[in-house]
Predict the 3D structure of the following.
Amino acid sequence: MLTVDKIYQASQMLKGVVRKTDLLLSSNLAKECELYLKAENLQITGSFKLRGAYYRISQLTDEEKAKGVVACSAGNHAQGVAMAAKKNGIKSTIFLPITAPISKVEATRRLGAKIELVNGVYDDAYQAALKYQKETKAVFIHPFDDEHIIAGQGTIGLEILEQLPDADAIIVPIGGGGLISGISYIVKKLKPGCKVYGVQASGAASMLKSIEYKKRNELATLSTFADGIAVKYPGKLTYELCSKYVDDIASVTDDEIAWAILVLMEKQKLVAEGAGAVSVAAALSNKFPLKGKKVCALVSGGNIDVNILSRVINRGLVASGRLTNLTIQLPDRPGQLKDVLAIIAHQGANVMKVTHNREGSNTNITGCYLSVSMETKNHEHLQAIKNALTKKGYKLLYDDNEYLCCK
């Protein structure tokens, strides 16, 4: 049974093993609330997962330790289990989906674990790990649906209440639900008036759907770059705890997540992975009633694959109205390109690329398309440019921001 004492015990056990991560007052990220960031992205191994993994492994008997441990993960739990096993002198075997970022796979390997890559997603790695456990009798270290794992993650809730005792709300990422289960349980036991909100990626909202349907719901597919919270089926224990202790759950799009990653990098100098940034994305996008509140957003991990970071930043720029590709239909006659660029320049935007096309199938014989890539300040600045162009009689056909809003 999960108890307050168990979470306090986990907190004592983890002293000297994990960092008590900083709680940072954000640099005016959210306009309507006083937003603090719990920086678990700066935790050892780059995420909160070490807490639960180490506490779970510390509770093994000598006989269980001799059999070794097995786990499945999208990457962060893998590193937590590998480090915890290494510190305890235990053999570890980790099953990861083949889609796991190379950086997470190699980091786990460097910590001494035996790596097994599985075709598919996290849930496929989970089934492969269970099969291995039955064959070898190794101890399975579940990534979220285990009371010791949940107790370890709940130590973050203790730290938040110590660092911000007058917190009105805490926003927590949700994948399988272990993190928010531990935090919501201890927060509601010690400070019942503090709201606990959960956030999932809209393409992996299994816990959100389960709460809506009032029973555990398995998703047919997953679609998000936030691999750390891409879970088709929430845990039985975590579903029960979330149903009882979590006040509300919302989802955010990949574009909102990318925007949050960009904002954290620019304004806070913090690198967050997709799963770690969903809490901030929810705060920025006003998913919960936070006006006038003291709010803690948990940045749960920072292990983002550098190979996709540039694409994420680009999507964040588009989502925030700072980068766009604008397509304009105009008459094909001398001076039109000059006039369009003059309007854009007068509005203070920076043109990066111009493409002139006369051959579109829907283009008038005497017309053409002009595609302009430009840097702008924000959505308001972009709208001012569009208004100036339409005022001069130019027809706007498409821009990235309209496309993203309609997805």
